[in-house]
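Narrative of accomplishments. A recurring question from our advisory board has been how the design workflow behaves on a single, concrete structure rather than in aggregate. To address it, we present the structure tokens for one chain from the evaluation set, followed by the sequence designed for it. No filtering or post-editing was applied between the two.
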């Protein structure tokens, strides 16, 4: 049998009598192991059946023969020969690990052979060999080594840092991936637990060790996400998981294994997703969702700590006009600049958010418990924000003044909800706009009552439309000599209880709620129905009828088609319909306004510019519009002719109108002196209480038919 070097030395066996020798010869054939005796030349003298079976022969056939007579494996035979000679020469017992081929199966077997030299009764040297078959042990060891190699390969290739914590020794072993993740060299493949602890981010250590303690106590498996610090200063997020795999008889943990995975990229992606979910993409400010969640937390904090908070709700004044005249790109730049200015003016602790469009909010926390002091501080903050916004802001080639209005409400968190705080700030904002814009207003309880009345008014307007409670009154327009030339259609509302509502109350509410659109269509339809009927009344067939058109109504994309359709439906003459536009309409897209006016003019409809002189009309634009008439605003009539400034304005407007070939209409004429002054300046048409009050359609027709 060939051998591997595993020498074990001992005293040589020296049987000194024939009895011992005889006993050995009798016991040898019955040994459960391979056993045999060789002479000095390596010939078999005594063998047992185990050896015969190995060589696929009989015991008798082996006697007097050598290994090479049966074993074709020259390397094995040579190793047996060398071992035989060395042991006989040394006279020392040795234990060697060697192999032999099972000649019947062809399988190589492994043996642990104890080889003992001795002298026989005849004085010659012999070698006793007892070989134990350890093939199963060798196979198991080789399988374990292969498994270990495969495990090493797996640990080297997986994308996780594996750790093995010997709790008794306080040592932790790792695979190379763990060292790679932490930026450590191979000297850290095994190290004290303190090294692991030091690598954990200081802010996360308490959380990590609390999770470890729960696992060691057996209450749950170890699973935690935390940050680790590399020697190069970089921080990585890891998902670390593991469990106790060995405990002593008393249940105390002895060994724990686990693995950690680098989740830095996932954390970055999650942070980006969260940022997108909570950030306004245009300005980079917090969005509505983040604002509402933060407000809920601030309300709870105020209630718990006895503090006050405040919400400032800002809305840019005339932002739509800026967007329409300068374009959306300029509008976006303005919104971004507003966001920047708000951040400059607010405190670091304040949350600034864009709710959408041109609406911004600033959330203040940590205000004094005194409501009066909190209101005063919030008011100062609102004034500071508005002042910062009122500076010129970039908008293309020309600066834009980003004027805004603000509503302010103070809260304690004891009774308010997120919705309540927003509603109160919105009511205050509405009040600020009603007071003239460019200012702030603090919420007062009566504002809620005012809003309730406005809400009820909007609901009543819906009822008025469906119940046909709206109707028209007509105010006549005359030449200076008293000839009727036209009339203005004025909307009136009488509810089911017979109560009349003033237009100054319900028209602004209709414009704010969007109900002005169906109301405007109603007025236009009623006017066209009158014009159609007047074609059969000779005295009225040449009279024009003026209808006021709101900016929202004119801005509808299908406004031109609406007018044409209503004219056709009633069979009204387009040339007798006059649409009155305010200068606010001209603040929209000029090209779009011009195109709509030209389209209706080609159809025969005429246009009048209402309240001329009170808006912001550009004369350069004015001369390009297909206007037929200018109406001098009645606010210039009140002090006429006693006020020199009003006289100068009226004279200028009349001169301008005549120079442009437009008809001049003065409204609000109530006194003879006014009429005389206007007639002397050549005003074409007069309208006012002096010549005729607004009156029902029937009364108008009865008087002038």
């Amino acid at each position: 049998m060939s051998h591997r070097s595993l020498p074990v030395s001992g005293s040589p066996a020296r049987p000194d009598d024939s009895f011992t020798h005889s006993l050995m010869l009798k016991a040898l054939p019955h040994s459960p192991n391979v056993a045999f005796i060789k002479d000095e030349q390596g010939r078999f003298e005594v063998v047992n059946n185990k050896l015969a079976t190995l060589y696929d022969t009989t015991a008798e056939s082996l006697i007097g023969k050598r290994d090479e007579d049966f074993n074709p494996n020259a390397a094995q035979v040579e190793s047996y020969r060398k071992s035989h000679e060395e042991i006989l020469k040394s006279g020392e017992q040795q234990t060697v690990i060697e192999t032999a081929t099972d000649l019947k199966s062809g399988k190589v077997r492994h043996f642990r052979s104890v080889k003992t030299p001795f002298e026989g009764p005849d004085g010659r040297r012999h070698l006793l060999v007892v070989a134990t078959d350890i093939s199963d042990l060798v196979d198991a060891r080789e399988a374990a080594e292969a498994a270990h190699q495969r495990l090493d390969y797996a640990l080297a290739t997986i994308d996780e840092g594996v750790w093995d914590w010997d709790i008794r020794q306080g040592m932790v072993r790792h695979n190379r991936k763990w060292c790679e993740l932490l930026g450590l060299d191979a000297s850290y493949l095994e190290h004290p637990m303190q090294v692991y602890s030091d690598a954990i981010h200081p802010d996360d250590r308490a959380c990590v060790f609390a999770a470890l303690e729960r696992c060691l106590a057996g209450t749950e498996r170890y699973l935690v996400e935390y940050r680790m610090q590399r020697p190069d200063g970089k921080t990585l997020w890891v998902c670390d998981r593991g469990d106790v795999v060995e405990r002593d008889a008393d249940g105390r943990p002895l060994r724990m294994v686990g693995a950690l995975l680098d989740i830095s990229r996932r954390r970055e992606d999650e942070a980006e997703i969260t940022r997108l979910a909570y950030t306004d993409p245009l300005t980079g400010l917090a969005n509505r969702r983040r604002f509402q969640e933060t407000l809920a937390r601030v309300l709870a904090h105020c209630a718990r700590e006895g503090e006050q908070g405040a919400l400032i709700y800002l809305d840019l004044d005339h932002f739509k006009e800026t967007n329409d005249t300068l374009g959306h790109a300029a509008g976006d730049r303005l919104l971004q600049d507003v966001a920047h200015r708000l951040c400059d003016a607010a405190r670091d602790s304040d949350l600034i958010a864009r709710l959408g469009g041109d609406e911004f909010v600033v959330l203040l926390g940590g205000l004094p418990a005194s409501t009066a002091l909190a209101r005063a501080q919030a008011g100062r903050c609102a004034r500071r924000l508005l002042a910062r916004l009122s500076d010129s802001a970039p908008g293309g080639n020309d600066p834009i003044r980003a004027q805004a209005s603000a509503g302010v409400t103070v809260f304690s968190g004891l009774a308010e909800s997120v919705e309540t705080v927003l509603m109160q700030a919105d009511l205050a904002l509405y009040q600020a706009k009603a007071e003239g814009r460019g200012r702030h207003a603090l919420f007062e309880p009566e504002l809620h009552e005012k809003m309730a009345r406005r809400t009820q008014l909007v609901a009543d307007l819906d009822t008025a439309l469906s119940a046909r409670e709206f109707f028209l009154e007509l105010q006549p327009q005359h030449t200076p000599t008293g000839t009727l030339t036209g009339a203005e259609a004025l909307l009136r509302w009488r509810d089911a209880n017979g109560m009349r509502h003033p237009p100054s109350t319900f028209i602004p509410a209709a414009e704010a709620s969007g109900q002005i659109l169906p109301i405007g269509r109603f007025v236009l339809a009623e006017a066209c129905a009158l014009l159609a009927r007047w074609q059969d009344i000779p005295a009225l067939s040449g009279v024009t009828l003026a209808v006021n058109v709101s900016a929202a109504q004119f801005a509808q994309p299908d406004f031109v088609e609406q007018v044409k359709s209503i004219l056709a439906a009633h069979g009204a003459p387009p040339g007798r319909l006059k649409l009155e536009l305010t200068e606010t309409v001209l603040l929209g897209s000029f090209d779009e306004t011009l195109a709509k006016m030209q389209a209706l003019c080609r159809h025969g409809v005429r246009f009048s510019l209402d309240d001329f002189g009170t808006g912001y009309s550009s004369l350069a634009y004015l001369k390009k519009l297909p206007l037929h008439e200018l109406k001098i605003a009645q606010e210039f009539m009140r002090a006429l002719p006693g006020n020199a400034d009003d006289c100068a304005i009226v004279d200028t407007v009349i001169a301008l109108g005549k120079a442009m070939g437009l008809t001049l209409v003065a409204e609000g004429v109530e006194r003879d002196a006014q009429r005389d002054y206007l007639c002397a300046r050549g005003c074409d048409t007069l309208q006012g209480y002096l010549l005729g009050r607004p009156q029902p359609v029937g009364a108008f027709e009865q008087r002038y038919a």
